[in-house]
## 1
Amino acid sequence: MRKLLPSACLSWFQAEQACRLAGKRLVNEIVRRMVNVVVTDLIETSAARIAAAAPEDIDVVRAARAPLVGMGESVAGRHLALKRFLRDQLYRHPRVQTMTQRSQRVVRELFDAYFGDTERLPTEHAERVRRMEGEHGARGRARAVADYIAGMTDRFAIARHEELIGTVTLPDRF
């Protein structure tokens, strides 16, 4: 990761300052400063745009030719470059993709198990499934099961999956 930092992130603050930091401290400082730059620019640029437009009511805001709230061009460009970097180097990383696929499998299998047998749900959730199914048919049943799963933490979902279906191999850390 450190090899990638200079090209992707160090432009957010002077490289000589970064050289004094290492490891997690370097990453934390870069993130802290990046957030500060983006938020400060967003506030200052938005304030300047709003002051220049001097909108008297919401209709003037809606009729504005450009958004009144947003980042300046320079920071917006760097922000977009960072988003591309994260998409390519982090979100699409093979290890992240593997973890995502395994997690999707856990959710899908939990859904199938609970949808197929609502008695596996805690009593209050099984009652909600029956109520929603009575009101909206299969869609209501699916919505109630999906809502139950959506409220689970990762650890709870994995534990329920192990109880209902079996163990799924997930890496401890990336």
## 2
Amino acid sequence: MDKDEERTLLNISIPLILIFLSLACQAGYSSLTMTIFQDEQIFPFEKKATAINIILFVSKIFTIGAAFVNELNEPIPIIFIIVLACAGLLLIALFPTREEQSRLEAAAMAKLQEERSKRSQSGGEQSKFSSGVSITQPQKHLDIETKDLEAPVTASANDDEKTESIQEEE
């Protein structure tokens, strides 16, 4: 192959490879985004918005830092990429499986039910929790007699005068 054919091949193959890689990155980003929003195993509903914003923040930091790493001497950028890839694989390996996730959720629900039953068994005392400190207070019962509620309401003389002045104005 002579130099002209090699140059032509490079001029065609490099743009095609870049197009393929950009489409692959877009497909990966789209599938990851869909997985994050749909799978409760990755991020629970209560923490999903915070986690996604933290990921976006970290990714922007890495995007800015990529230009600086690229300017370092030759073996350092590829070592940096290999270390990040290994760290990502390690994090993926630490994710719990669906069975482990179900077992953890069942244990958490059992613990919550146990705490609720302990509180309901305490009888006449009500517990209030603040900063991990339990304060018990006896419940106060209000004894209201029904005869106090049925007492007639009496109008004062001032009320009659106001009613008469409003009727005169009309």
